User: What shape does this take?
Amino acid sequence: MRVPRNESGKLCFALEEWRIAKEIAIHFSQLAAMQRQQKALGELLVEIAEAINEEDLQAWETERQLQELQTEVYQEVDLQHPIEYNGHDICGLAKRGMLKGCASKRNVLSLRSRNRGTCW
Assistant: This one.
């Protein structure tokens, strides 16, 4: 077997870099196996992408829109402070103790019509 040398006549490879034919065959065999695995993985990804059909995409879009609508509704309905009823600050009244006794005996919303002035 010929030994490759550069222009100055020195060896191109050090002795520890030399490989026998079997080592080279193993290297290319492993390289080919990796390429086959990558090709198989790529084909699997294509199959998965094809399996996601238009109906699935439409279902996902519908679900996303429903979640957005739900979030908007929750934000709209969510309690915001101060809680007010007919211009009265219920949170402030409760904090000052002006609702004690009234809320435990009757519905707070009906207090205004029944006991005008006693609770607020």
